Amino acid sequence: MKRKSSIMVLLLIVLAVAALSGCGNNSNSAAEGNTKTNAAGSDKPYAGVVLRTISNPSNQEYFAKVNKEFQEKTGIEVQTDTVGNADVTPKLMNSFMSGGSTYDIFVMDVIDLPRFVVSGWVEPVDQWLTDDMKNEMLPFAKQALQYQGKYYGLPFASEYKSFVYNKTMVEKAGFSGPPKTWDDFIKYSQALQEKGIVKYGSAWAWSQTEGLVCDFIAIASSMGGKLFDENGNPVFNSPENTAALQLMVDMIYKYKVVDPASIQYNETNVLDAMSAGDIAFELNWGLPLTPLNDESKSKIVNQADVAPLPYTVSSATIAGPMSYAISSGSKNKEAAWEYIKFLNDTEGSKRQAIEIGMFPGWKSVYEDPEVKAGVPGLDKILEQAEVAVNRPQIPWYNEWSSKFQVELQNALTQKKTPAQALADAFAETQKIQESNK
Q: Which residues form the signal peptide (predicted)?
């Protein structure tokens, strides 16, 4: 995520999307050690098993329907503790701290995987995961399931940011297609502004939140940068990363093609500016063409299109994938896997894409004719899915990100040069890394 405190809110939203049937107050839980009750060879070997998860009420109707079908097929009942947004994460953490048997299944953000693995809270699924499954996953969704050589869960809400441009405005400015490089981006933006088509070429979610880290990673990746090496050591004070942060600063102050209000904006503010026709370019989560083509919300209906993010080395974008995972304390791990597979394999993912607009993590789902027909614009953003990158896999990610956001803002507000901000972030990261050994 991503609105307000971007990715933390995204975690809560996607946990909310995982709302499953029931009110969550049934005492017959996995923690009480339900076991298989049917005889060997039965077509419902897990009949009588009850699985528990936690969520808030969002999309409850959809998941209630799916859970009913799952129970009819397998005999497994899925119950949910339905709580408010603010209570989901604390209750999940309490479950982990007390042995992890309260909830069998939970939704896990990519940034939480390393911490959960190191803490022993999540169960590997290598014994059930097939080679065909691995080969079908989009690269970023596949990576989001892996840590220290093992897999944890199946893709769910495999979201990433898409670069969007107003093709009508771009044509008015005299260009025949979207900008391909950052030099193009600046040139297009300047032309749009000089012709009075927009006041600023773009706006970005560069407030001191997780969204700022996400956008920096996307831009840095497009310029050949990376934040950590293969051993988890910081390398973000490299020339490529410094150039990326310098570009962000220059687009505000030197070229004046980015709305200065961006340093206070989140993704919702950016979408609002794009919908109003105030800007010609945006980078945003979800299916951005859907709200932009909504006549009740947008002034640029049928004007926007999706294209690869401009680049210096190669196009890239930032991903925010989630996965369904199994608690290491679950007493019904095999049944939990059956549910995760039913919900999130290619068929389940296809259904989610069509019925609730959930991003699939499987290549074949994007290519499915029914999905293309049911989710407008999905086929146009597959190219970006192929080059999406995840945030660093470090167990102390949240602690690091909060510090990194400060230094990125120091550069964007011109309190420090980009080089100094990244050097200070590097030093601070080394301290965090050392304290977590």
A: 1-30
Helix (H) or strand (E) holding 155: strand 154-156
Residue 1 domain-assigned (yes or no): no
CATH number for the domain harbouring residue 69: 3.40.190.10
Q: pLDDT tens, 108-141?
A: 999 999 999 999 999 999 999 999 999 999 999 9
Domain match, 259 and 151 both: no
Shared-domain flag, residues 136 and 22 = yes
**Is-contact 170 154, C-beta < 8 A?**
no
Query: Nearest CA to 259 among 275, 282, 242, 243?
Result: 282
State whether 227 and 284 are in the same domain: yes
Contacts of 296 (CB under 8 A, 6+ apart): none
Q: Are residues 275 and 203 in the same domain?
A: yes
Residues 6+ apart with CB under 8 A from 149: none
Of 197, 198, 172, 173, the residue nearest 184 (C-alpha): 173
Residue by residue, DSSP assigns 375-423 as STTGGGGHHHHTTEEPPP--TTHHHHHHHHHHHHHHHHTTSS-HHHHHH
The DSSP string of 177-219 is S---BHHHHHHHHHHHHHTTS-SSSB----SSSHHHHHHHHHH
Question: What is the Cα–Cα distance from 235 to 226, expressed in whole angstroms?
Answer: 7
Note whether residue 36 is domain-resident.
yes
Tell me the pLDDT tens digit for each residue of 24-81. 333 333 333 444 444 445 688 899 999 999 887 777 889 899 999 999 999 999 998 8
Q: Print the domain residue range for 225.
A: 162-318+396-435
Residue labelled with tokens 């405005």: 169
Residues 276 and 362 in one domain: no
Rg (CA), the chain: 22
Q: Are residues 206 and 345 in the same domain?
A: no
What pLDDT digit, counting tens, does each position of 287-322 carry?
Answer: 888 899 999 999 999 999 999 999 999 999 999 999
**Token representation of residue 282:** 């945006």
At CA 99, angle to CA 396 and CA 157, rounded to 5?
Answer: 55
Looking at the structure of the chain, the number of domains it has is: 2
- 107 with 30, same domain: the answer is yes
In Å, what is the CA distance from 315 to each residue of 137, 191, 320? 20, 23, 17
**Do residues 227 and 240 make contact, with C-beta atoms less than 8 angstroms apart?**
no
Collapsing DSSP states into helix, strand and coil, what is residue 320?
coil
